[in-house]
Specification:
Radius of gyration: 20 Å
Structural class: alpha+beta
Number of strands: 8
Helix content: 25-40%
Number of helices: 8
Bound molecules: zinc ion
Oligomer: single chain
Length: 207
């Protein structure tokens, strides 16, 4: 991490309306681009000096189940992260979940709370996205590595840990971040087990 996260340059968007289906007249697509591929492209309408005014392939954008994404933009002299939180995130999760800070101060009946019930918070979504950042973490950045069905959620985290711990380390799922932050419990089974006796933070107050 070069200068630490507090100095990390980010351009943050709530939505991806700057991706347009209208291309400026005379836009040249790379050779061999098929009409099907062309139909999946967007035009980045952001200013050229911010890395915009370019063709974007269809992997970008708030479509399908995508709730957030990050892309490193290299301007040659400087790099920054283009971070998009999709409207879907705000529609689906914004009002539903207590904040991580609120959860940290809460006591749950032991073994009754599953980490997958914690759901998505803005904090962990931002950590998730920034953990993908090439600008911030370079070779130590994370990926969304498909386990059984997807790359997300405790079940998939568990699957990776059992089958290929290397994948578990490189995967960006939110559950481990949540488990680390809600440190008053031992979440290794998925449920909030009592913290083991020798844990250094056992007797520190959550809050
Ligand atoms: Zn991801």
């Amino acid at each position: 991490m070069k200068d630490g996260i507090q100095n990390h340059p980010i351009e943050l968007w709530c939505g991806d309306k700057f991706y347009s289906k209208t291309f400026p007249p005379g836009t040249e697509f790379p050779d061999n681009t098929t009409p099907e591929e062309r139909a999946k492209c967007y035009w980045d309408t952001r200013p050229k000096e911010r890395g915009g005014q370019r063709i974007i392939e269809n992997t970008h954008g708030c479509k399908g189940n995508t709730i957030a994404m990050v892309e490193g933009i290299n301007l040659g002299t400087e790099m920054f992260d283009l971070l998009i939180i999709c409207p879907k995130w705000f529609d689906t999760y914004w009002f539903e979940q207590p904040s991580m800070t609120a959860l940290r101060g809460q006591q749950f009946e032991v073994k009754k709370k599953h980490i997958s019930e914690i759901g998505r918070q803005l904090a962990t979504t931002l950590i998730h996205e920034l953990s993908h950042s090439r600008v911030l973490l370079d070779k130590r950045r994370t990926y969304d590595i498909i386990g059984e069905k997807s790359a997300y959620g405790f079940k998939e985290v568990y699957f990776h840990a059992k089958n290929n711990p290397n994948n578990a380390l490189r995967n960006a799922a939110d559950s481990p971040v949540q488990a680390m932050y809600l440190e008053g419990y031992n979440w290794s089974t998925g449920f909030n087990e009592a913290m083991f006796e020798e844990a250094p933070l056992k007797n520190t107050l959550r809050g």
